[in-house]
Design goal:
Blueprint lengths: L1 H14 L1 H28 L11 E5 L20 H10 L4 E12 L9 E8 L3 H4 L4 E4 L4 H6 L3 E4 L1 H8 L8 E4 L2 E9 L22 E4 H6 L4 E2 L3 E2 L13 E2 L2 E5 L3 H21 L9 E4 H7 L5 H31 L1 H9 L4 H34 L14 H27 L3 H7 L1
Helix pairs in contact: 1-12, 2-10, 2-12, 2-13, 10-13, 11-14, 12-13
Length: 432
């Protein structure tokens, strides 16, 4: 029966080509605009570490003085050197990493390259296993290298391709800010977006090319890159005793019970620091997991959400127009439908036939909308935004495009089909 309805639908669409083209165009425009903005929103609001994000937490403490004090105000996003090292040495989580960003000058030994700057991450050893960072060659450093400020470095696959042609470079030396560091590992394909572990540097885009122990970066006096928030007399944010937050601290807690215990540990730590006179405020801590952290930081740009709502509104306008066009088209076929009713066709059968016709319109409109979405995403990728290169239509959004187009057209066809099926056949037969 479906094949018969499909054949009738195709014949009907061919008879009214202009009207059919208008309905297809309306749906294609609405679907194309909606899927372009929804794809951008889908990419930007995705989980950067699926399967791990629920185990990773960003602890927050409040070491500030009483200036501008407000009860239960949000604590700083970063930690001081003293608090970061204290929490790191406490070893109360399954894994923990203290880090900050940097920018370092690299002096290649190859004559073909001039010295250039590369973004860097100064971190402790748990960064790699905690975030599930894959390695193409070599390995990460361990706690012993952290403790001894070893002159070791891990580089990205992109930098390895640039300097060594993609060959295994582990064991070779990399001159960095005038210092020779031994390459012990080359990262594999790892590019989490957004750049969740340090949103002070950037939200999206390329990750760091160089990774080295935090202790080594401090011994070599490498400058950090990223935000710093100071209070009181302030000072140099690179000074370990300055009242400034400039480091990121992440922990891995494998169970909710461990997360609750760690939250309590942060409260006790804050109370202890207040007793010692370092903290002036009452314990004010937060412990958000990765996805909660991204929501709190409002990583998705506000204009992207606004554009998505506007595009959905445009889709609604297109569907309203489609309803009007379908209503006109179906009512023009009253004589044909009246004859079918007189010959014994039920209202249910006519309703199904008209909905199949609506579905065909939606399918063709969806394919047109898909082409428009590809065009829209191509234009988005040419924008100067740092997330622009990431925007691509994946399999899930491709399927959603077709499902949304067919579903929307079926919904738009319900009222016109219902009206057409309730026309009395006797009146139509008399008028003809």
């Amino acid at each position: 029966m479906f094949a018969y309805y499909l054949e009738l639908a195709l014949r009907s669409l061919k008879r009214n080509k202009a009207l059919t083209a208008l309905m297809v165009l309306a749906i294609a425009l609405g679907i194309g605009a909606s899927m372009t903005t929804l794809t951008v929103l889908h990419v930007l609001s995705g989980d950067p570490l699926p399967g791990r994000s629920s185990l990773l937490y960003a602890p927050q403490l409040d070491p500030r003085d009483m200036g501008d004090y407000q009860p239960q105000a949000e604590p700083p996003d970063q930690v001081t050197w003293i608090d970061g090292t204290n929490l790191l040495q406490a070893q109360r989580a399954d894994r923990q990493a203290l880090m900050t960003g940097g920018s370092v000058a690299i002096q290649p030994t190859q004559s073909a390259f001039d010295p250039f700057y590369e973004t860097a991450r100064y971190t402790t050893a748990d960064f790699f296993p905690m975030f599930g960072v894959p390695f193409q060659y070599g390995h990460a450093w361990g706690a012993a290298e952290d403790a001894t400020s070893a002159a070791v470095v891990v580089i990205s696959s992109k930098l390895n391709e640039k300097l060594f042609g993609g060959r295994d470079s582990s064991g070779r030396l990399l001159r960095l800010e005038g210092h020779a560091l031994r390459i012990i590992g080359v990262l594999g394909d790892w590019r989490p977006n957004p750049h969740f572990y340090d949103l002070n540097v950037k939200n999206y885009g390329e990750d760091e090319g160089v990774y080295l122990p935090l202790s080594t970066s401090q011994d070599l006096h490498l400058k950090h890159l990223g935000g710093a928030d100071c209070w009181g007399n302030g000072g140099d944010d690179a000074t370990h005793t300055a009242p400034c937050v400039w480091l990121q601290f992440w922990v891995q807690l494998d169970t909710p019970a461990k997360a609750a215990a760690y939250h309590q540990f942060l409260v006790h730590y804050s109370q202890e620091q207040k007793t010692l006179g370092r903290f002036l405020r009452a314990p004010n801590v937060r412990l958000r997991n990765l996805m909660q952290w991204l929501d709190y930081e409002q990583v998705v740009p506000g204009d992207v959400r606004l554009q998505s709502w506007l595009a959905l509104g445009f889709l609604l306008v297109c569907l309203v127009n489609t309803v009007g066009l379908m209503l006109a088209k179906f009512l023009r076929r009253s004589a044909e439908l009246g004859v079918r009713r007189a010959l014994g066709a039920s209202r249910r059968a006519l309703f199904s036939q008209l909905l199949v016709e609506s579905g065909v319109i939606g399918l063709v409109g969806g394919l047109g909308g898909l082409m428009l979405a590809y065009l829209g995403l191509w234009l988005v990728r040419r924008q100067p935004a740092d997330y622009a290169p990431l925007v691509h239509l994946d399999g899930a959004m491709l399927l959603l495009t077709i499902v949304l187009a067919v579903g929307a057209s079926l919904l738009a066809g319900v009222l016109p089909a219902w009206r057409a099926c309730h026309i009395a056949p006797a009146l139509q037969l008399k008028s003809n």
